[in-house]
């Protein structure tokens, strides 16, 4: 799927880049939920200019630095000392380099430093304060966990509070953008097809892209694509649940809880797929429509993925209550209130 929308955000990122290259370094934060298109937007904005892209995976700090060194050397055509084993030293090296030349530094999933080495944030603060005015780096950091990114950059006790020159929060595609996509990929689409795309994806670009790339843009084909075995939507639901449970989780219990919850979701969902008219996707669409009818001010039809999670969660709770009913309290010997 080609690049859609985001004209204002692109214009702003290019303006910031020009300021960083011509005046002094700038730090920009791009946030938004998973699959909203943060990386695509950033890489579109910095294309055709020297760019270092670093993805922060959940690895130890020394391993990350070892992987980053050849990436930096290749992107900027320079020699990077291979003995660097801390991100603090690597960032300082890049800031020193930016006093001599201009380039973009993109750090993706920035909040993951919390699980690797939390002191990296304060180290970056000190180095940024030291070199910002004399350097020409366009630093862009992005993160998918909004609460953590807000804690890092907007909490007055956060390590990088006040350092971000701009904060851009990406939203989902609007209905008009989805209509433009449908006209291009499915010219014969109906209004029901457009509504289904909006309902199932919530305008999240990655989910829209899955339907477009697989040529499934009619209601029945969308439902079949999501409900089939090995559907990418099933795995996505599991990952989202794990991510919600694992926020701020140090001992791994949150991840295990999320995995168990996701497994229960999948089991219950699969058990109900055999009956087409009672298919959970259809029921959720109907319920969303009823809710919207009674609450016209609400956003029409929330993304199906989250509706499935809520639907299955409620069913799981009900099933557990049926399997383990609470015993009736023993009221023998208790006085009845006078009439």
Can you tell me about this structure?
The protein is an alpha/beta fold and 339 residues long. The chain is 55% helix and 8% strand. It is built from 15 helices and five strands. It has helices spanning 7-22, 38-46, 61-76, 87-97, 113-116, 119-131, 146-153, 175-185, 191-201, 205-213, 219-227, 232-246, 253-271, 280-294, 304-323, and strands spanning 26-31, 51-55, 103-108, 137-143, 166-169. The protein has a five-stranded parallel β-sheet with strand order 2-3-4-1-5. Helix 13 crosses helix 15. The radius of gyration is 25 Å and the shape is globular.
Considering DSSP H and I runs of 4 or more, what fraction of the residues is helical?
40-55%
Largest sheet: 5 strands, parallel
Main sheet strand line-up: 2-3-4-1-5
Query: For the residues shown, what is the average pLDDT?
Result: 80
Question: What is the tally of helical segments?
Answer: 15
Instruction: Classify the secondary structure makeup into a structural class.
Output: alpha/beta
Radius of gyration: 25 Å
The 3D shape can be described as: globular
Return residue spans where pLDDT drops below 50 for at least 5 consecutive residues: 268-281, 288-315
Q: In oligomeric terms, what are we looking at?
A: single chain
- Count the E strands: 5
N-to-C order of helices and strands: HEHEHHEHHEHEHHHHHHHH
Distance between the termini: 72 Å
Share of β-strand residues:
5-15%
